[in-house]
Amino acid sequence: MSSRLVGVGVGPGDPELVTVKGVNALRAADVVVVPVMDSGERGRAEATVLHYVPEDKVVRVVFALNERTDRARREAAWDAAGARVAGLLERFGSVAFATIGDPNVYSTFTYLAQTIAALVPGVVVETVPGITAMQDLAARSGAVLTEGTEPLTLVPVTAGSAVLKEALAGPGTVVAYKFGRQAAEVAEALRETGRIGDAVWGSALGLPEESVRPAGELDGAALPYLSTLIAPPRREGGRGGKL
Fold this sequence. Notes:
five-stranded parallel β-sheet
């Protein structure tokens, strides 16, 4: 029987936002892998998983989650993590990997799955979708992500503020992920493109330290790394004006 690796999206942090299918996948797996940084602190994925499975079923595996400058270190961490998970697949057969948000949206699971496919011949790789931070922020703030024929653009600000400015100059809603460390540049881009008035940002959604604020209150101070921004377009013409 083929071994099975399942990437399970556990949402942005609020345990109530894990889908029924996601909970079932976590409980059905022999072990549940959660990614941790080399500093060892408990991440959002692990904290969420522990609401649904016992701690002795959870395996913590170190990933270079925020390493962007040292490619050799990052590759070595991916290789080591992949070897660890490959070993778990040989022992247990069914492994779930819990990732915040969705496993197919800017997720560490993508790199793990590629590594495992090369290490474990015949492995079956599946994903269970999860609620994303932009959906959660839209719900908590009242921001509407899209109407009618509007496009939706998702930008990781780790790609640089120029990429965000280009998106903001276009049509439709722009969502920015991971912008906390570049909050000043993001605020400047919003003002330059006339988008700051209706924009909203949030961090630690669903957690005790949650913050959901108008983007107009951005003062240049650094925010949590996993902050999310929604910048809707100007909407004129009343109800159905974008159809």
